[in-house]
Amino acid sequence: MNVAELAERVRRTHPDVVVARDEATVLVDRDGLLEALRTFRDDEELRLDFLSSVTATDWPGRDPRFRLVYELSSSRDHHRLRVKVGLPEDDVRVPSVTGLFPTANWHERETYDFYGVVFEGHPNLRRILLPEGWEGWPLRKTEELGGVDTRYHGAFVPPVDRRTT
Amino acid sequence: MTIDDAIGAADLSPGSTGEIRQETMVINMGPQHPSTHGVLRLLLELDGETVLACEPIVGYLHTGIEKNTEYRTWQQGVTFVTRADYLSPFFNEVGYCLAVEKLLGIEAPPRAQVLRVLFCEMNRIASHLVWLATSGLELGAVSVMLYGFREREQILDIFEAATGLRMNHAYVRIGGVVMDLPEGSTDRIGDFLDVMPGRIDEYERLLTNNPIWIQRNAGVGPLSAADARALGVTGPTLRAAGVAADIRRDEPYSGYETYEFDVVTRDGADCYARYQVRMEEMRQSLRIVEQCLGRLREPGPVMVEDPKVRWPAQLEVGPDGIGNSPRYIEHIMEESMEALIHHFKMVTEGVSVPPGEVYVPVESPRGELGFYVVSDGGNRPYRVKMRDPSFANLQAVSQMVVGSLVADVIAVIASVDPVLGGVDR
Amino acid sequence: MPVERLEGFQTGKTGEESREEFERGLLMTTLDKAVSWARKQSMWPVTFGLACCAIEMMATGAGDYDLSRWGMELFRASPRQADLMIVAGRVSQKMAPVLRTIYDQMPEPKWVISMGVCASAGGMFTNYAVVQGVDTIVPVDIYVPGCPPKPEMLMYGILRLHEKVRTEGRFK
Prior knowledge:
The complex is a heterotrimer. Chain A is an alpha/beta fold.
């Protein structure tokens, strides 16, 4: 089914659907997330049974600050749907979807590693890419890029995020 | 008591538990290992030689590419992203550029799309050759390593002539590709096409009916289609379980719907089937390269015309390599001040991409490589997330090796073909 | 491929110091010379390929650019049997302790080639995740720049290392 039909179908149960650039995005609440994903997976026409990726984006200064993004696709019909969940800054928790999609295991660990999002019910929520014991959530916009202050022939080269050129 | 006393006191008759305890061993196949395809660490719980559980631990190559792209312009993102999955750099570049072009609402000119397909398919062959070489080496067929790299050198020569680098090319840019093929490239690619099918036959003669290869690979590491789907596995590992899932066929990009090729599947769902799938995929890629060569006969632009998007420089092969053409330098330095200012702005400030988010999947040699790109309207990406196929495929390894021997772990990892640069980014 | 013996350029010393060293070298015993020659003739690298440079290192060891000409095609997996560590690729913070452990496990005499800009200085990744130059962790003998360096560049670096070892002249 094409994007417009997909959006219509999704709107029946979840009205907050945006269609842009030939892609459909639906916003759901944190509490309704598991129900929504189960509906999308089991619905006869949608059949969105493949979870491609789980990630987050950080919008400091906005409320909700974090937006979790789930990319779903259908192995039968090859259409795609993006599911977004907003998380406030002071309560960065969300239920884990590993029960529905086992592949989310490592993707959720990566999102936890980068942003500090706690996935409740995850079997093994530990850092995956950064060393254990690393402090901070590096991909948050409030964290620095890091690196080194380099000095070269008397000139000073600041780390990348403080350069003006 | 002494050891002799202990052994004397133990009841070793069959059927008794005796004084001897049995424990499982937890062994580390460390990040530095000749056979783990990169810096992958495996925690194996062993009962003798049988694997009870396996946990892959990754992160030893984490480079912070995603955070780095947020501090560079859109065009500079190509050079970062290309080094993630370092065995298939063209796919990284094409995925990223397709995502940015989708945000911009533009499309690369047809000749650029043909060039992208051409280089991607040759990259697929090169990547499968490295898989063949390292798998063979790890399983004991040491000569296959040398043969694989010999063919790969031919492909890399073609890449070097066209892009200036053997790996990590930064050739595919937003709006097209940066340079057209130099003189004689089509002849070289034609020569390569003449030679390669015979070489693939040579590898198959060496390995396909080899009893040792079959014993090491057949029945090892089974992964059914349902399990693969649930675990997020894509690419040859999924196709070896009988599922004809290929992004080039299902969600075509860059003109793939106009090429004739088969989606290769096998039913074995074990390491041997994955080997067969990859060998046949090399042949299908050769078919596509041949069709691309036919389409390259007509000349055309390789970069969009829109001055707000196109990379301003005109590159050409000079006496010391690929650089700005002297004619272009004369134009911006002596003839036109506006061209100089425009060049300066495009290189330092870059493209301004309208706000929004897109997800673009491409079919890399390992599976679905997806790019989730978010823009806030500026000249720097807001978020670039790479959905790497090896990241998802490695999760399946824990399931595939349970109950097999330690030596089979190596065969399984080789057949999944992870590239840790993509896994760790 | 002949390696030029340029004064100062090779050993990093001035003309005076070079001459002094040369005169001291004349006093090198035949045994010293023999040992240095033997050390450089078949240096065995330990497999420490990390990222893209590792593929170029493998290509250098493969058929077209053959490391076997210098007796180096045998990459030892165990650091106890190796005397050269080619750090090929970006070293992440998680990998740094592993790098140091492998270096410590190698027996003396040992040398380190830092291959690629990521190993030499952090490369393009000036960020939280990459160690900005592997010489903050292990002492490096030869830096080979490039991203990734062509096999010929790596071979040149290896040959410079061979010259360095050959003229070292003392038991370590």
